[in-house]
Amino acid sequence: MSVGIVETKYFQINEEMKLECGKTLKNVQVAYETYGNLNDKKDNAILILHALTADAHAAGKHSEDDKKPGWWDNMIGPDKAFDTNKFFVISSNVLGGCKGTTGPSSINPETNKPWGLDFPIITVSDMVEVQKKLIDFLGVKKLTVVGGSMGGMQALEWSVNYPDMVDSAIVIASTSRLSAQAIAFNAVGRNAIISDENFNNGNYYDGKLPEKGLGIARMVGHITYLCEEAMHNKFGRDFKGIPAFDFGIDFEVESYLDYQGRIFVDRFDANSYLYITKAVDYFDLPKKHGSLKNAFEKTKARFLVVCFSSDWLFTPNQSKELVKALIQAQKEVSFVEIQSTLGHDAFLIEVDNQTKIIKSFLRGKEE
Amino acid sequence: MSVGIVETKYFQINEEMKLECGKTLKNVQVAYETYGNLNDKKDNAILILHALTADAHAAGKHSEDDKKPGWWDNMIGPDKAFDTNKFFVISSNVLGGCKGTTGPSSINPETNKPWGLDFPIITVSDMVEVQKKLIDFLGVKKLTVVGGSMGGMQALEWSVNYPDMVDSAIVIASTSRLSAQAIAFNAVGRNAIISDENFNNGNYYDGKLPEKGLGIARMVGHITYLCEEAMHNKFGRDFKGIPAFDFGIDFEVESYLDYQGRIFVDRFDANSYLYITKAVDYFDLPKKHGSLKNAFEKTKARFLVVCFSSDWLFTPNQSKELVKALIQAQKEVSFVEIQSTLGHDAFLIEVDNQTKIIKSFLRGKEE
Is residue A260 within 8 Å of residue A223, measured between CB atoms? Predict the structure, then answer.
């Protein structure tokens, strides 16, 4: 069952936002969607927190003839993992994004031109502050936060920064801080964008877009979202046709990455890619709080930590570090490592397993 | 002990080379070095086969004030793993390279300009054919072949194609065929080069070089040569200075990759990078011979297969596949998995372990 036809709404933050970098942002706009209804006690809300390049449109369709539903439609809806018969589900686009929430492609009110690289550096904490304004505006009192990958980082930050509001946190395929290797992959992606002949120091909105650089960044990303086993199963060493003996597309895996790179360019802003990957690189709960145990000291949420055996970008060991610190801080935590051959992407695909686990966890909230 | 001052020599192949792609190459030049002396029976030769971006200069120095010795100097020399008191060690630059052997930056005799992308696609088998001409020219009768990474592919190809000549083969951190993931990383590197604004379809020798693209390719390469553990130990999440809140170099790992990218541009040709990675992608012994066991059927060499526990580019499992097929084909094979935290790069660094293992294996040759 689907949530049906939904609409992206927009919320304007009137007060100035003070950012972690020290700068401020005025007139921040937030794109969001909601599914289901807020109850009278205003305590049945679930905030969906998206990963690197997704948006507020997490479930349902925007029109009858919409080709694709929202990005987590298989998890959100009547009787689904996030059951809209029971819960008021909220999804918003992150600060720095390019899907309706203020970001580097938005108009800088002081110049009446897109911000470009004049947009201030934002952090995961800044993303959460913006979401907090939205949640308050919607009148929510108690909240479940949930997210995969970068979404899990936001869920962690929420539980740490707003302990009285967050009663449950579901952290999927995530970490308290990226590994050096993951930072390295992000650095390559940013380097490819900044090196693109059309990048023009971020001022490309009037001209040609840095398509090649953004495409390369996406190719690198997709390698890390899959894993060798997934790639082997999906493509192996199969050729698209016969060996071409030139530098065009030869192998199926090349064709896949090329396609992913090309379609990404149509839906994502290169500057947003820079800002959001940087926010992810900077995220470091242990450093910010002295230790991960310290970070969790004041949290009041029940935690569910889910990871996938073949995820090498946000590894099971990183999830286990979260669990260990939560236990040290004497917090309630459930942990599941799902056996999967799908790599990091599993959080978007392994619906049945996640549904069972999440439903069971959320039943604790109903009691 | 060093082999001392050495000189790169050049050998010209007078006959036309017929390549695997069907095209031919005239006047192929081969850059090579030799260390130690060929014995009277001409059976004490060891052919060193280099990886992606190395050259003929494997040991010693070119002059007294040379800053760095050859790329495998820690393994080649008197009393070293490849003991030049006993063996006649030969090292040559591969076909398609840019270090003295004919490649895309060489002059096309028909146009008197650099070949660029008019250079024919070459394969690992073509590299071996060129080396065979050199070995015959040097009067060698029996040969040990040895190489790490792409060098191991050449060693395998040698043992399969020239069973009567190769009496020992040492295959280090290598495979009978790349994984889909490794092809994907090579595809990203090629894409970055081809997307560079200066690439000009490979005709950049008169103008600006595709430095940014080649730098990005090298960054991606270095991520795969290390492993997460090595990166964690080397850089962790350390900042170069303080968080800069901009898109410059922030983390130590970014600084390392940026540096590796920039110095690579000074020493390597972007077109050679395209040709050589393509040769590596195409290499597929099982496909060529029906099965890996079939490939080894006619070999007469003793094999030593060495891999490193943390190598995720040329994995221990891939080495074990080689060993399994050799055993099935009833060949003599020794296998060692060296416990290492250095990733694929270990074959250039883990000198002590490799020396012990290789010396022991080569004693079998002396007997």
Answer: no
